Amino acid sequence: MEKSLYPLKFTPIYKTRIWGGDGFKEKFSRSNTPEKCGESWEISSVKDNVSVVSNGFLAGNDLQELLEVYMGDLVGDSVYEIHGNDFPLLIKFIDANENLSIQVHPDDDLAFSRHNSQGKTEMWYVLDAEKDAELINGFNRKLSLEEYKEYFSSGRLMEILNKIPVKKEDIFYIPAGRVHAIGKGVMIAEIQQTSDITYRIYDYDRKDSLGNSRELHTEQALEAIDYNFYDDYRTKYSPKINDTVNAINCKYFTTNVFRFNMPIEKDFPEIDSFIIYMCTHGKCKIEYDDEKNFVTLEKGETILIPAMIKNLCFYPETETNLIEIYIDIK
């Protein structure tokens, strides 16, 4: 009898960054992270960075291999019909020990024409933030291309950027085209399209360990940037205990916040998609299929629920908060 799919955990892929720190060791109790670890790629199918299963009988197999074998059973028939063997999301934790570069990502059309890739729309869930921490999300006024170029060339870019104070549990939606940057002292969970295309606009004149400045993409960014101004850059939502609250709905992903301190059963008969859970605090046991099968999930862990699993029971060891992610194809 062929073994069934089950909730999958993956070995994190760590990325050393010039702005990275020790946050994953301190907050997630991970002992194997490198120095200046800025990113932990939790689920990835980016070329040369494909996640490998760490639990169960599929341990050692990578996400690409799973897609080729299990197809719609893993990701959902409608998702597989659109994306095929390309897993559509890249799931990360990011620890900003210093300011990240100011950057922008291309949309699907521009990314396809330039890089034969999809674009990069993303969202941030703030896991932790130091006092007075902030981030950059968009502009603080509407600009023309010429006005932007004038501010940039005269060294006054920071004057037009929208700086936002941040606190734990804030959510920000970053559509492709929006200039943005994570600030010093902020740790986030990032959900994004599977793309590693970033146009770096400004990097505070930093130098790497060899004394080299990082590459900038000044001209490439010009066509990618959305120069509009928006009234509110922070996503409004109100988490509720023992309930699932929607935060983001876009064609690339749906994101909910699920907080509970008592057993909760969830059924997904109408969701034709995988579901990902990122645990931001607490610890729980997740039962699936029947009472004999369960997996634990704790702070700093991420798990992929295959689309073929339609019933889950969550048993908290302590109050637990999960980010719930799936693709809702209309």
**CATH classification class of the largest domain:** Mainly Beta
Number of domains: 2
Measured distance between first and last alpha carbons: 35 Å
> Which residues form runs of ≥5 with pLDDT under 50?
none
What Rg do the Cα atoms give?
Answer: 20 Å
For the biggest sheet, the summary is: 7 strands, antiparallel
Q: So, CATH architecture of the largest domain?
A: Sandwich
**What is the count of β-strands?**
20
Helix content: 10-25%
What's the overall geometry? globular
**Structural class estimated from helices and strands:** mainly beta
- Give the SSE order as H and E letters: EHEEEHHHEEHEEHEEEEEHEEEEEEE
Output the number of helix runs.
7
Strand content: 35-45%
Describe the structure.
By secondary structure, this protein is mainly beta. The chain has 2 domains: 13-202 and 209-224, Jelly Rolls, CATH 2.60.120; 243-326, Jelly Rolls. 15% of the residues lie in helices and 38% in strands.
Please supply descriptive tags for the structure shown above.
mainly beta, 6-stranded antiparallel beta sheet, globular, Jelly Rolls, 330 residues
